[in-house]
Amino acid sequence: MTSRLNKQKQIFSLLNTHHPEDESEKTVSAGDSSAVLPHETASRQRLLNQVYHFHKSIIQNVNLGLIALDRLGEITFANKTAALLLRCDREWLLGKKLQNFFSKREDADAFMQQAFEPDAKIDDWETTFARSDGKHIRVDVNASPLHDHNNRFEGVILSFRDLTEIHQLREQVTRMERLALLGELSAGIAHEIRNPLAGIKAASQVLEGQFDANDPRRALLERVIREVDRSNKLLNEFFRFARPSRPNLEQHSVEAIVSGVRLLLQPTLKKNDIRWQEDITAGLQVRADGNQLEQILLNLLLNAIEAMPEGGELSVLAKRSRLPERKGRGKAKEAPKVVIEVNDTGVGIAAEHLEKIFNPFFTTRPEGTGLGLSICNRLIEEHEGTLEVQSREGEGSRFTIMLPTG
């Protein structure tokens, strides 16, 4: 142990006081008493090799993407983590412009302008990178100037880490807090509205019976009653969102639930010229409230059908997935999950609407209430699961449900 510690001290001492090029400066005549003996040179060379491999291992395996840029903004070095985060080979990255990896050109221009200012240093710059597979990740970037051995500016060294999951968790927490507050406030208001609506309907029905069938006043009262019923239906939907019933959790076959929903939708699929695709892992079980899970799937599938007015393809995929779950003192444990995907080839969702679609009363359809997806999201939260969406306008949508198996 002592010899290993002494060796480590030698390595760091050499790193802090010598440079590989210094060895040439120590070559003197044979008569010089300070000449370096061959065995000492070999020993120092071994230590230098150890230092090189030690730092190479740190740079390549550190849990940060590291990229070096020259003065033109071209990538001259990238570690393994950077290539992994950007989903490409390190060799392919070399010579590429960093600007090409920013999702937005204006973000790229602003970052590069600031990073290449004299002695500039950037800390915690949040932006979005586009990976080689077309997906976008939220990243936190730090940048510092890179100098050569003569202290001349040579480029920029930057590090970045993936914040996508953290960003999604932030949004989810914010949305849950907002919905909880809105639910409490609105549930009280909705309850007070139902009482006068009941009075209006009762009075209208009494008046309706006093007019002949052909009397125009009777038609007006019939319309009042229809609008009251419509308002009550909206309130009932809202109550399901604001105060969802606790799920009755039992083991269910995912295939059986999907088959039941498909049977209900069969006439609609045929009428709208929509092809159905299904890929479900055999024997897949999920612990859920069967009725609520059917309601969730039915809502998502009806939305998908409406997004394909000219026909298309609708697919449901279900499989097992194991994701890391933190358990006590930071230890990671693999938690089994069931992943259910609903994919369509419809009109897609505009980028500016993606963050709002789970908000109550947000809808782009004139006849919609804006509560369908809000109720789905709330029910899945009651199951301790998640609901996510990926979509591009004109390219269809994918809704992903993730639920615990037990």
CATH superfamily label of the largest domain: Histidine kinase-like ATPase, C-terminal domain
Count of separate DSSP helical elements = 11
Terminal CA distance reads: 48 Å
Structural class: alpha+beta
Order of helices and strands: HHHEEHHHEEEHHEHEEHEEHEE
The first-level CATH class name of the largest domain:
Alpha Beta
Using the 3D structure, state the CATH architecture of the largest domain.
2-Layer Sandwich
Largest sheet: 5 strands, antiparallel
Averaged pLDDT, please?
79
Task: Give a quick precis of the structure.
The chain is of the alpha+beta class and 406 residues long. It contains 11 helices and 12 strands.
Would you give an account of this structure?
The protein is an alpha+beta fold and 406 residues long. The chain has 4 domains: 51 residues, no CATH class; 98 residues, Beta-Lactamase; 76 residues; 155 residues, Histidine kinase-like ATPase, C-terminal domain (Heat Shock Protein 90, 2-Layer Sandwich). 45% of the residues lie in helices and 25% in strands. The radius of gyration is 32 Å and the shape is elongated.
Question: Which terms would index this structure?
Answer:
single chain; 406 residues; alpha+beta; Beta-Lactamase; 4 domains; 5-stranded antiparallel β-sheet; 11 helices
List the helices and strands and how they pair.
Blueprint: H1 2-17, H2 22-25, H3 38-61, E1 65-70, E2 75-78, H4 80-85, H5 90-93, H6 105-115, E3 122-130, E4 136-147, E5 153-162, H7 164-208, H8 216-242, E6 250-253, H9 254-271, E7 274-280, E8 285-288, H10 290-306, E9 312-327, E10 331-344, H11 372-382, E11 386-391, E12 397-404
Parallel strand pairs: 7-9
Antiparallel strand pairs: 1-2, 1-5, 3-4, 4-5, 6-8, 9-10, 10-12, 11-12
Helix pairs in contact: 1-3, 7-8, 8-11, 9-10, 10-11
